[in-house]
Write a structure and sequence with these properties.
Number of helices: 7
Order of helices and strands: HHHHHHH
Distance between the termini: 44 Å
Oligomer: single chain
Number of domains: 2
CATH topology of the largest domain: Hypothetical Protein Yqey, Chain: A, domain1
Shape: globular
Structural class: mainly alpha
Length: 151
């Protein structure tokens, strides 16, 4: 078992023993998503820590989007629950880059790719995506690239 998946499992056991309902439910959800990803495709496999981070990032993003939808529908109680679940998942993800750090990395990637116009967003994103995995949301990165390229 990978280090991160093992940590999730141990933290789930601890949460269950301490009767922390929110944490228990969230970690169960996360482990289910990881297991589903492991058996997806033609053959079952063990996910690496990097792949587990990707799954957790996707789950955290779902929580943020659901919270926004619930707030829009006037369901503040459900929105707060989704945000709380997202906060639990964030504990297992790498620290997010600040706006200044992201700006610097995008500037370097643009220089490295030689991009000078908005049509070159794809080239810059190909460079940035592996470097920023789990540390910045794709939409946020794309917006910064667009801003710097003048698109």
């Amino acid at each position: 078992m990978t280090k991160l998946k093992d940590r999730l499992q141990q933290d789930l056991t601890t949460a269950m023993k301490s009767r922390d309902e929110l944490r228990t439910a969230t970690l169960r959800l996360a482990l289910t998503a990881v297991r589903t990803e492991e058996v997806a495709g033609t053959a079952s496999r063990e996910l690496s820590d990097e792949e587990v981070v990707r799954v957790l990032t996707r789950e955290a993003k779902k929580r943020r989007e659901a919270a926004t939808a619930f707030e829009g529908a006037g369901r503040q109680d459900r929105a707060e629950r989704e945000l709380a679940e997202g906060a639990v998942l964030d504990e297992y993800l790498p620290a997010q880059l600040s706006d200044a750090e992201l700006e610097g990395l995008v500037t370097a990637a643009i220089a490295e790719s030689g991009a000078a116009e908005p049509r070159a967003i794809g080239q810059v994103m190909r460079i940035l995506t592996p470097r920023l995995a789990g540390r910045a949301e794709g939409g946020r990165v794309a917006a910064e690239v667009r801003r710097q390229l003048g698109g």
